[in-house]
Predict the 3D structure of the following.
Amino acid sequence: MSEIASVGIVGTGAMGRGIAQIAAQAGLEVRLYDANAQAVDAACAALAEVWEKLAAKGKMDAGQAAAARARLKPCSTLQELAGCELVVEAIVERLDAKRELFAALEDIVGDRCILATNTSSLSVTAIAAACRQPQRVAGFHFFNPVPLMKVVEVIDGLRTSPATGDALMALARRMGHEPVRAKDMPGFIVNHAGRGMNTEGLRIAQEAVASFDQVDAIMREQAGFRMGPFELLDLTALDVSHPVMESIYRQFYDEARFRPSPITAVRLSGGLLGRKAGEGFYRYEDGRKVVAPEPPAPPAPGGLSVWVSPAHEQGQAMAVALCRRLGATLQTGSDPGHDSLIVVTPYGEDASTAASEQGLDPRRTVAIDMLHGVDQPRRRTLMVTPTTEARWRDAAHGLFASDGVPVSVIRDSPGFVAQRMVACIVNIACDIAQQRIATPADIDKAVTLGLGYPRGPLAMGDALGAAAILEILRNMQRVTGDMRYRPSLWLQRRVQLGLSLLAED
């Protein structure tokens, strides 16, 4: 297939404009059409303003800006797309509308013209079913804002010709984006992989384990993510995010891993959409998130005796090292003394289960999350049983915050906050790899660029230890009885064989 030189774009909303911008900047002739003629004129004017600003900032020269404007051709009818070698639709997310459009385009464009859909949630195969030549139909899914989000998913429907996808991969690179190849499955890569963060964060909130801001702070400062789930949901807006969560859940026939939460349904119905509405999980004033200051930690207790459970060898070693560094008096016997703080380090269990199974006094028991280690910490998380006495909770809080590191104290939860969310993120990515929806490398690339995670989920699992992730998942499933935590076979087999999660079969 020859190099694509002209592209038609149907739909002039944010996505259509963004695709038009990067295509024109890459030297392609761009024909822009919308059922609303005024929308086409508005899009052309907006793009001209964008290029003018980019030139003023020195990000492109005046000649380049003028050339990009000259490549943009407004169209008043679909027929004006007849000479295009590629048409990308960026219209309303409705199967009937996309099918109708592609059926109409087949009567207009040449036989070698590629028809691409920017759908984020609909089946490419289903869209192509209305076409006489489904082999030329593929997904070409960009992310908003298109010029800044440097990843694009190229999705092969069941009847898509490999050459069609190859041509779109090459074009994406010409337009300055990183393409990733995916099979036609609900959510493709990015929206599929994103379920681990959002749905598990919502589940944690639904269980009243921690507040929205606590969850976000833990994921940012302990787990190293740029944003927590509720900050992310406020950014994307619930009128976008909630339907996607429901759609993916239903398309996977109520797969437990993707189960949505009534929290978002209720907030959506109340108009608490996020940043754009001025209120979501947070309130926003002048575009800035309003968060109450974190209360100060209790004072570090003097002469505190601490006994750290040996039940989890790795966790115990790290907790003991931390306690010594903070100046605590450590008990080394096989059983805790009668007046000692009991510290447990569970992976995937809650504090109550750890205390019960180890025969410990739950009134003195506090759990600390050791998954992310103790080196250069920005936040620590403690967890209490329903019967942990306030004096022991405060003693633990004061001790583990005594070096100035903030501490979040949460209610009992299998897997704390960071453990269960990171384990779900890694597990879903493993299942995407197991289903061969995309290669391990493309999964990590797509998630890193599309969701802004500190590293890809498979690389994240390798860094934290795939065996530790598997242990967390198995314990969460055991404690909760919930199939959402069942480990992926991809994860299980690579732990059994000592393979990297990025290793292909």
Notes: The domain at 192-290 is CATH 1.10.1040.50 (N-(1-d-carboxylethyl)-l-norvaline Dehydrogenase; domain 2). The radius of gyration is 26 Å.
